[in-house]
Amino acid sequence: MLFTDVLIMIAETVGVTALATFFAYVLGLPCGVFLNVTGKNGLKPCKPLNALVGLIVNILRSIPCLIIIVLCIPLTREFFGRGTGEWYTILIPLTICAFGFVSRMVEQSLAEVPAGEIEAIKSLGATDFQVITKVLLPEARVSLVTGVAVVAVSILGYTSFAYNIGAGGLISGIYTFYTRHTGDYLSSTLFWIMIVLVVLIVQGIQELGLFVAKKLDKRKILK
């Protein structure tokens, strides 16, 4: 394994983590808003719909990531022409794995918005859509941004399963290196470099999330 291979694995890891996080929020953000709006204290409480969508979200959250990866191989093959063997073949299962997590995080973030602010804008004649776009989402922006960082780090951890379908990535590369050098892997500089790189990527995601959250927090409560 060469350093150029490590650079490729870094690109694969960052790329699939960013894309999976993006698509998880494309699906999970509207779902989280829906769960909040139709919840007991939401703008439009609807217990049957909320329970149905909540059940689907909970089921997806309950299924282990590796099982979702295996179940998604036929779907991945339909989209990409192959079900395994490339970094992008883990994109769909990672998105599905994170979808339920994102939905619940968004729902919780919106639930933290003070009810007084919602009532204030409703008293001015605002529609439900305006309440969502003008109060709920803007007021929850700090929590939502920190949530993105948490989800991205979780997805990065899920990429460890990429080894099982030959999808590449840095964490998968670490395990591959171990299987090829079982007798002396701990004495290899490259092995420890890859571990440090994973840690740096995680720290980078967390620091970026905190930095953006600080910029968005008008109350400046984050230190």
In terms of quaternary structure, the protein is single chain
| Class inferred from helices and paired strands | mainly alpha
The CATH topology = MetI-like fold
Q: How many strand segments?
A: 0
Label this structure with key terms.
mainly alpha; MetI-like fold; 10 helices; 74% helix
Topology:
Elements: H1 3-37, H2 47-62, H3 65-71, H4 73-80, H5 91-111, H6 115-123, H7 128-139, H8 141-158, H9 170-180, H10 189-216
Helix pairs in contact: 1-5, 1-8, 1-10, 2-5, 3-5, 5-8, 6-7, 8-10, 9-10
Structure, described:
- The chain has 223 residues and is mostly helical.
- It is built from 10 helices and no strands.
- The protein has a single domain (3-216), classed as Orthogonal Bundle (MetI-like fold), CATH 1.10.3720.
- It has helices at 3-37, 47-62, 65-71, 73-80, 91-111, 115-123, 128-139, 141-158, 170-180, 189-216.
- Helix 6 (115-123) runs antiparallel to helix 7 (128-139).
- The radius of gyration is 20 Å and the shape is elongated.
- The N and C termini lie far apart (42 Å).
- The model has no long low-confidence stretch (mean pLDDT 89).
